[in-house]
Amino acid sequence: MAIKYCKSCNERMIEGLYPYENKEWEEHIDIDKMAGHKCFNCGIIEFDEDIEKDLEKDVELQKMLYQRKKGKDSPIYPIMISKVKNARVGQELTPKDMADVLGVTEQRFGSIERNNNTPNVYIALQLEKIMNVDIHDLYELVYIPSELHEKLKILNDKFEVIEGIPELLSRRDEIDLKLKELKGKLEDRRAEIKGEVESEIAEAKKKDSKKAVSSKDKREKISTRINEDDINSNISEEMKDLRNERIQVNKEIDRLTGQEKDEKGKGTKGKKNPKEGEVEKQNFLLRLGYCIDYDNWQKVQELYAAELIIK
Ligand SMILES: [Zn+2]
């Protein structure tokens, strides 16, 4: 490290660890001493800028992550980059070699490599040993802006946003919002009817004390009145239509993203033993909602460089 002289008295400063305080960092990082230079003549301390900058980045990340804890949406989202295939090919190992050493089926290993599922820690640590690499050479976690994460979920094999999907997603959001609003209205209307019935019963009882009504009868009365209520049935109808539309929207999304389901609710494409090369066409780039192949990640970095910047 370079020798530093005090800007104030020109005395040579002494390198060491000195008490460090930063109110902004307090919640997120535990530091009491940090590397820097001190002038023992006038007490001035200058901390190492590089270290401070590095830590600043960590603190920024922590701040963004902890927004979720405060109930806010985090501006960043963790995705995992899978380099298992690259590592294996780089070492001229076949999928069969890997499966044999791991003691799993080739199919299971293939599905790990295609990121249709991620290995558990037990298998991941074995992969590390078998290929004699660091775990981070197999899997890497990066944070990307949440907006880009949403977009990655709807890219096709040409890394373009699948036509029609953004509109469908926003329609689905609209429906959800409307449904929530109607649900509130429905509850209000039902409470109103209940109140009416209750006060009618109370009125009748006031006039004639023999007119007391059992709680079972009261419940039945309320439910009959609700069923006969026009406002109530209109809202219910509207909700039913919206729910049906929502099902159609989801089906359309599944169709466009190649995730169509058959009658038994199982995926007909993509998921069931996809043939090599077929997967890319039929599935989202982002597997499992968070895992991306290394080569695809390279492409994303290239094409979406501007959107990768965390603001
Ligand atoms: Zn000084």
Word description of this protein:
By secondary structure, the chain is mainly alpha-helical. Helix content is 50%, strand content 10%. It has eleven helices and six strands. It has helices at residues 49-65, 84-90, 95-102, 106-113, 121-130, 146-152, 165-207, 215-228, 230-256, 278-282, 294-303; strands spanning 14-19, 33-38, 45-47, 76-82, 139-145, 291-293. The strands form two sheets. Strands 1-2-3 form a three-stranded antiparallel sheet. Helix 7 (165-207) packs across helix 8 (215-228). The longest helix is centred in the middle third of the chain and has 43 residues, at 165-207. It starts with 13 loop residues before the first strand and ends in an 8-residue tail after the last helix. The relative contact order is 0.10. Mean pLDDT is 86; it is low at 267-282. The structure holds zinc ion. Residues 6, 8-9, 11, 39, 41-42, 44 line the site of zinc ion (ZN).
Bound molecules: zinc ion
In helices, the fraction of residues equals 40-55%
The computed structural class is: mainly alpha
Structure annotation, total helices: 11
Order of helices and strands: EEEHEHHHHEHHHHHEH
Q: Order of strands across the widest beta sheet?
A: 1-2-3
Beta-strand segment tally: 6
Q: Give the N-to-C terminal Cα separation.
A: 33 Å
Largest sheet: 3 strands, antiparallel
Detail the poorly predicted runs: 267-282
Mean pLDDT: 86
What proportion of the residues form beta strands (DSSP E)?
5-15%
Label the overall shape: extended
What is the CA-based Rg, rounded?
Answer: 31 Å
